[in-house]
């Protein structure tokens, strides 16, 4: 039986700050299967960075264990590094005077690939990220998005069981962001497990099948993405632009399923912007909202499905002592 790409089992991490023991992680447990993309979320101070460093063999857990492809991180970190690739956001960590092909071959050799297989493996990796046609071009001439895709190619050279992606689309334009996401979306086809962290929640929404939320050093949620989105209790958010403020606050009582989130005047349009959560969007919901204003006061209605950002803001608020 093929082991999971990642098993985090009861992991805790303590450190001492001014002679006081502080717990950064407490009994954290979850798995990432082969061919699965799992999003890891948490506000600043929730413990994400500490956990990633433990998985990457850069930090030792105080208790619990981490297995990468069945290998214990603490017991055999060298073997773990041959099964793990870590890709950070940004364009550093490459040799700008070398070609993309040479960069991939260099890092492949450092990961222990046999010399005779470096060339074919590098070309395959570059092809998988859409860079084979520029394989002989110096990396210094690459755009930031191309460099980030090259980082992915370098990560694939080791044929990892687990790839950790930290802010993979940071600083990229929309076109390069979509290109990178399309590459990441194909990684499960290669049997790679992916642990993805990103402040751009659209990355998580577009790519992850499951989401783990850390809150105050513990796992508060570990759910399929679709199930997590249902935690909001709403199907859509509705923004109403009107030439007068909403005279009534909708509290969602009486079975209407409509709740007011905010109401403010916009400076650029001199209109009032009122945002609602709606449990189930329908023609009746629209009629219910329209009754809140005098006739002719509503100028525009914008409807969008509830996304991960709204759910995350509600579920992942900081605990006491946690950074906001």
TrEMBL record:
CDD domains: ABC_DR_subfamily_A (cd03230)
UniProt xrefs under Gene3D superfamilies: P-loop containing nucleotide triphosphate hydrolases (3.40.50.300)
Residue ranges of coiled coil: none
Keyword Electron transport part of the UniProt annotation: no
Every ABC transporter domain range: 6-241
Signal peptide region: none
Membrane topology label: Peripheral membrane protein
Cellular compartments annotated: Cell membrane
SMART domains named in the record: AAA
Entry-linked InterPro entries: AAA+_ATPase, ABC_transporter-like_ATP-bd, ABC_transporter_ATP-binding, P-loop_NTPase
Superkingdom, natural source: Bacteria
Keywords of this entry: Antibiotic resistance, ATP-binding, Nucleotide-binding, Transport
Family: Belongs to the ABC transporter superfamily.
Name of the protein this chain belongs to: ABC transporter domain-containing protein
Organism (species): Streptomyces graminearus
């Amino acid at each position: 039986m093929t082991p999971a790409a990642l098993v985090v089992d009861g992991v805790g991490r303590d450190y001492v700050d001014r002679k006081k023991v502080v717990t950064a992680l407490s009994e954290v447990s979850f798995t990432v299967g082969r061919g699965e993309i799992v999003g890891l979320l948490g506000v600043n101070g929730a413990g994400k960075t500490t956990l990633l460093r433990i998985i990457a063999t850069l930090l030792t857990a105080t208790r619990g264990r981490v297995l990468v492809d069945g290998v214990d991180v603490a017991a055999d970190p060298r073997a773990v590094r041959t099964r793990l690739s870590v890709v950070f956001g940004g364009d550093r960590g490459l040799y700008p005077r070398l070609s993309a092909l040479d960069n991939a071959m260099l890092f492949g050799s450092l990961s222990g690939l046999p010399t005779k297989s470096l060339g074919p493996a590098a070309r395959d990796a570059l092809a998988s990220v859409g860079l084979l046609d520029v394989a002989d071009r110096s990396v210094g001439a690459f755009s930031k998005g191309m460099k980030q895709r090259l980082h992915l190619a370098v990560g694939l050279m080791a044929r990892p069981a687990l790839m950790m992606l930290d802010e993979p689309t940071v600083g990229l334009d929309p076109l390069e962001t979509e290109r990178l996401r399309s590459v990441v979306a194909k990684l499960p086809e290669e049997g790679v497990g992916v642990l993805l962290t990103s402040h751009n929640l659209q990355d998580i929404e577009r790519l992850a099948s499951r989401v783990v939320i850390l809150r105050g050093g513990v796992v508060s949620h570990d759910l399929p993405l679709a199930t997590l989105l249902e935690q909001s209790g709403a199907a859509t958010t509705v923004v109403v632009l009107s030439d007068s403020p909403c005279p009534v606050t909708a509290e969602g009582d009486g079975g209407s399923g409509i709740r007011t989130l905010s109401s403010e005047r916009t400076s650029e349009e001199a209109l009032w912007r009122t945002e609602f959560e709606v449990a189930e969007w329908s023609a009746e919901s629209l009629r219910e909202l329209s009754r809140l204003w005098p006739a002719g006061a509503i100028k525009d209605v914008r409807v969008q499905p509830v996304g991960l950002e709204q759910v995350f803001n509600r579920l992942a608020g900081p605990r006491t002592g946690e950074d906001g």
